[in-house]
Design goal:
Length: 338
């Protein structure tokens, strides 16, 4: 008998852990898994774009060739729209919410916020990219979703996850009872449980930040970077600098090996670059569930109330002791600046 546990089997096994278990959330997660496999297939042949046809052209099958982030967006929207468990979607790719108005979804209980292809500039150079998703219970009563459904704090998430399209494709998710990771076995087309009950070390040895923006960072971040670079045997400093430029990939590595990811305010992004609803909140939920921390430098990410759909926030996330130290520097040197 094979010991492999697929995502589908795992979701069904855990179904009774959900607070309102009637199978809807399980089906929603399954739908996300299906869209992820389709996006995986396309991401894996991204290097063939020149052979198969340029973006905007018609390919050999007579289909128009789309940018991968547009393609990923369409796949997730399609999977969530036909599934019948989701009444609305907020996506990085769409200015406004996408209400779903089908007979099956009128009484659907959930809304999904997502970044369908995060770090998409990395696609052209064969570097890891990801998908991030966040699931809330609707607050409106019936019909298609409203803006109110998406104006909930991260603490209200019922599930969140990411898919990393890397040297292998992995789906990592939480429903608030720990974090589990599944690796796609392309030979059988299934996500298989490979990283059960993921826990992040309380300390690590790498820091991830775009240091090219150093001159524009708040003083607290500048001082923290200098701290990371100082020699100190007890805390194993200097730390290594590791920055992929794909938040999912940087966070995934740091989750496994320990580390801190920072995207602070800069001159060009005075409120930070990353989006609260569909990047920072879901990643924060996963990191906290794995034992780490996520803040905006001062406040827990999950407690920030979103005022607008595409609201940005500074993001400090990872191993708890490293995040605590970075936030101490923010309090000491930057409290007055922001
Ligand atoms: P995107 O959603 O437009 O892809 O931007 C988000 C990405 C993150 O994945 C990554 O960490 C960051 O932007 C990189 O930004 P920068 O190039 O400014 O370092
Ligand atoms: Mg993004």
């Amino acid at each position: 008998m094979s010991k492999v546990k697929t995502l589908g089997q795992f979701i069904i096994e855990k179904q009774n852990d959900f607070p309102y278990a009637k199978g809807e959330l399980s089906r929603l997660l399954r739908d996300i898994g299906i869209a992820a496999k389709i996006v995986h297939r396309e991401v894996n042949k991204a290097g063939l774009a020149d052979i198969l046809g340029e973006v905007g052209e018609t390919n050999v099958q007579g289909e128009s060739v789309k940018k991968l982030d547009v393609f990923a967006n369409e796949q997730f929207i399609a999977a969530l729209s036909v599934g019948g468990e989701c009444c609305g979607i907020a996506s990085e790719e769409n200015e406004d919410i996408i209400p779903i108005d089908t007979p099956q979804s009128r009484n659907a209980k959930y809304v999904v916020a997502m970044d369908p292809l995060d770090g998409s500039s990395n696609i052209d150079v064969n570097v890891s990219v990801g998908t991030i998703f966040s699931i809330y219970r609707r607050v409106s009563l019936t019909g298609p979703a409203t803006h109110e459904d998406f104006q909930q704090r991260g603490t209200e998430q019922v599930a969140a996850g990411y898919i990393i399209y890397g040297s292998s494709t992995m789906l990592v998710y939480t429903t608030g009872k720990g974090v589990n990771g599944f690796t796609l076995d392309p030979s059988i087309g299934e996500f298989c449980l490979s990283h059960p009950n993921m826990k992040t070390p309380s300390n690590g040895k790498s820091y991830s930040i775009n240091e090219g923006n150093y001159v524009h960072f708040p003083d607290g971040v500048k001082k923290y970077i200098k701290y990371c670079q100082e020699e100190d045997k007890a805390t194993k400093r200097p730390y290594s600098s590791r920055y992929i430029g794909s938040a999912v990939a940087d966070i995934h590595r740091n989750l496994i090996t320990g580390g801190i990811y920072i995207y602070p305010t800069t001159a060009s992004s005075p409120k930070g670059k990353l989006r609260l609803l569909y990047e920072c909140s879901p990643l924060a939920f996963i990191i906290e569930q794995a034992g780490g921390k996520a803040t905006d430098g001062f406040q827990r990410i999950l407690e920030i109330e979103p005022k607008t759909l595409h609201q940005r926030t500074p993001f400090f996330a990872g191993s708890s002791e490293m995040v605590d130290t970075a936030c101490d520097y923010m309090k000491r040197y930057s409290a007055a600046q922001v």
